[in-house]
Amino acid sequence: MIAIVDYNMGNLASVRNAFDLLGERVVIESDPEKLSQYDRIILPGVGAFGDAMDHLKERGMDEAVAEYAQSGKYVLGICLGMQLLFESSEEFGISQGLGLIPGRVVAFDSSRFHSPLKVPHMGWNRMFTKGHPLFEGLDEGHYLYFVHSYHVVCEDKEHSIGQSVYGYEFTSAVARNNVMGIQPHPEKSHHNGLRILKNFITL
Fold first, then answer.
1. Within 10 A of 58 (CB to CB), how many other CB atoms are there?
2. Model confidence over 126-136: pLDDT tens digits?
3. Is 79 a catalytic residue?
4. How many domains does the chain have?
């Protein structure tokens, strides 16, 4: 069974609807003591990094998610949920993350361009991936739907399993053993997004 972590910072209904289309039963879970009962968890997120970490801590979900990841069960972070897997973020000052993947979250840097990048990065863009079961059955460069103003920087490049280009190349998917994350929204990405969720189910 799969749990969607509820910490009052994500579009839970749309994520659940995507799993409904796949015929997979999921539970929106707000009790940190129950997370260990599930086979897999989804960590969604919409909004600011610092606020999200505050909400996780207030509910005791920060420790629960970290303990779950350490158990070896599969975790998938989506959009802000992926960024929360990292050690820190510079969004509105420095905030500490869950620290499950070494690295940090930074703003898009437009200083190298004549005109600034339009932020947030919003709309359909390609993700280039190779060799990870999360993307089985997808083309090497597949289109997904993005909405974000910050992106992750992995300390270890081996944890970067997907790249996209917006002004410059950035990491758009990550994996460290059982802990994975994708920057785009699979629940808004039609067939390609559903395929990623289906692959997560069958890992």
1. 11
2. 999 988 999 99
3. yes
4. 1
